[in-house]
Design goal:
heterodimer; A: alpha+beta; three-stranded antiparallel beta sheet; two-stranded antiparallel ribbon; 3 helices; 5 strands; 25% helix; 14% strand; globular; B: alpha/beta; ten-stranded mixed beta sheet; nine-stranded antiparallel beta sheet; elongated; Colipase_CS (chain A)
């Protein structure tokens, strides 16, 4: 009797545990979101960049752009097609009114201090 | 009602007393005595299903047909009519519990392999056998293993292909199925266990589970080693190969702790997201393997007993020829004679690309005054540059040396320059300036040391460039 009971309990446990895995740490739902988590505005992300690949794709938190990577200039939209640059870098590229409206003022991250270093 | 219970109990007792046996024509007989059942690890007794009920299928991909599979059987005529070539290496991929052989990951793995090598890649589909109670599936793999073994025997008969030309990759329960293949085939070339299943296998006799004796070379990737009870860790913590990799310590994989909505609404689609929701850590094993096929250098394993020691840096850098590559190219590693269960650690990324390149960085800080803030460094090399990595967060004291390990996400080749940056969130009217006087960098893979020297100190949020010391 006990074996059967144990067996059926075991099966139940297996079924339940495979359906609902244990969650480990407390997760940010609205603020302090990790990279890869779904966001609406950049302020929600730890990285402070909420990025989407196309106008219709789901935005997710993403790391800031490193030097020589593609970037967006600061925009009024709170999401970006390419993230802003890391600290110490500026997003060098053309700026246009049309680009501001369509959120496509892209550039390449460059060292703000680039020139002084090149001469030193 | 009570009769059923009594009958059931009797059946149980009888089952324990008299081992049952089933025989399937060419595959031989399967018993349910020790060690297959009746042990503490395997309390519930089940006999494997028949091959017909499991419905194992072999889906062949080759360079002639990389996009659509050919279904093959253990039959000379069918094999000869297919694109199978006995002169090539053969790799089987076996899925695990609640999975299927034409699931994207198996097909993707075959396709990725075919881009780098000319092989016969066979996805083994036993979905019906795996869509059962776990205890039943854990026994059904015995038949699946026997069928793969039968297949390899046919290769031997038809093409004179040696078993050493065969590599069996198995995920979860599939890893133990691969173990069963190796038990039946002498001198099987290689088995790769991708997070072998823990319940009903961990602590069991070597006959039952994957074991170094199953093939000439057994490599294992552990990604979900926490105990099944109560953490629902689905993989084994026990080392069962010649070499065992524990990426990120094997317990929690980065990128697997996202919130529920973000996990399920995955970049790779809802189905992949749901799979990750159920078993993210467990499934990471094949994702790492898959990526290792195309970027092997990013998965260098460091010999280490556990993750704490690894994090402390005691296992860094690699001694000569001591670091194998996790995943596809693990077989390039020379295992010392007679050794097995060697443990290796490494860190991976949280999303594709998972590959990482480990460096040790020591920053000797220079500055006008000590401030509290964060200092970061970035690496620049012949093949590009990395993002900024935090060296220290807190009090930044000039004259002090700060040491940190960096798992860079790009392979930059030879390091040519470094950049240093510091910042904090407090406005300081004294405009303190800090800089790195000297940065020593050591690459883990080949122990190569780079020295970089900086002269000018910089204000907050300004990058300081450091050149190799000799060049100044």
């Amino acid at each position: 009797m006990r074996t059967l009971l144990l067996a059926s309990l075991g099966c139940l446990f297996l079924a339940v545990t495979f359906a609902f895995p244990a969650s480990d740490k407390e997760k940010g739902i609205i603020l302090n979101l990790k990279n890869g988590e779904i966001c609406a505005v950049s302020m929600q992300c730890k990285s402070s960049c909420c990025q989407r690949n196309t106008g219709t794709s789901i935005p997710r938190c993403a790391p800031l752009s490193a030097e020589n990577q593609k970037c967006s200039k600061l925009s009024v939209y709170a999401t970006y097609y390419h993230c802003k640059c890391e600290r110490g870098l500026k997003c060098k590229g053309d700026w246009s009114v049309g680009g501001t409206v369509t959120n496509t003022n892209f550039g390449i991250c460059e060292d703000r201090n680039g020139k002084t270093n090149a001469t030193s | 009602m009570s009769q059923f219970w009594i009958l059931g109990l009797l059946g149980c007792l009888l089952g324990a007393a008299y081992a049952a046996e089933v025989c399937y024509s060419d595959l031989g007989c399967f018993k349910d005595d020790m060690p297959w059942a009746g042990t503490t690890e395997r309390p519930i007794t089940r006999l494997p299903w028949s091959p017909e009920k499991i419905g194992t299928r072999f889906l062949l991909y080759t360079r002639q047909n990389p996009d659509a599979f050919q279904e093959i059987k253990a039959d000379a005529a069918i094999l000869k009519a297919s694109n199978y070539n006995g002169d090539r290496m053969t790799r089987f991929i076996i899925h695990g519990f609640f999975d299927k052989g034409d699931e994207n990951w198996l097909i993707d793995m075959c396709k990725t392999m075919l881009t780098v090598e000319d092989v016969n890649c066979i996805c083994v589909d036993w979905r019906k056998g795996g869509l059962s109670l776990y205890t039943q599936s854990a026994n059904n793999i015995r038949v699946v293993g026997a069928q793969v073994a039968q297949m390899i025997e046919v290769f031997q008969d038809v093409y004179r292909q040696k078993p050493s030309m065969v590599h069996v990759i198995g995920h979860s329960l599939g890893a133990h199925a691969a173990g069963e293949v190796g038990r039946r085939i002498q001198k099987l070339g290689r088995i790769t266990g991708l997070d072998p299943a823990e319940p009903y296998f961990q602590g069991c006799s070597a006959t039952v589970r994957l074991d170094p004796s199953d093939a000439m070379f057994v490599d294992v990737i552990h990604t979900d080693i926490l105990p099944f009870i109560p953490y629902v860790g689905k993989g084994m913590s026990q080392a069962v190969g010649h070499i065992d990799f524990y990426p990120n310590g094997g317990e929690h994989m980065p990128g697997c702790d996202k919130n529920i909505a973000s996990t399920i609404v995955d970049i790779d689609g809802l189905w992949e997201g749901t799979r990750d929701f159920v078993a993210c850590n467990h499934l990471r094993s094949y994702k790492y393997y898959n990526e290792s096929i195309v970027s092997p250098k990013g998965f260098t394993g460091y010999p280490c007993s556990n993750q704490d020691v690894f994090d402390s840096g005691k296992c860094f850098p690699c001694a000569d020829q001591a670091c194998p590559i996790m995943g596809h190219y693990a077989d390039t590693f020379h295992v010392p004679n007679g050794q097995s269960k060697l443990k290796f650690h490494l860190n991976t990324g949280e999303a594709v690309p998972f590959s990482r390149y480990r460096y040790k960085v020591s920053v000797n800080l220079d500055g006008s005054r000590s401030v509290s803030g964060i200092m970061k460094i970035a690496l620049y090399g012949e093949q590009g540059n990395t993002r900024q990595y935090t060296v220290h967060s807190g009090r930044l004291i000039p004259g002090k040396t700060y040491e940190v390990f960096v798992d860079a996400e790009t392979d930059i080749g030879e390091v040519t320059r470094m950049k240093f940056l510091w910042n904090n969130n407090i406005i300081n009217p004294l405009h303190p300036k800090l800089g790195a006087a000297r940065i020593e960098l050591q690459r883990g893979v080949d122990r190569k040391v780079y020295q970089f020297c900086g002269k000018k100190m910089v204000g907050e949020d300004v990058l300081q460039t450091l050149d190799p010391c000799g060049l100044q």
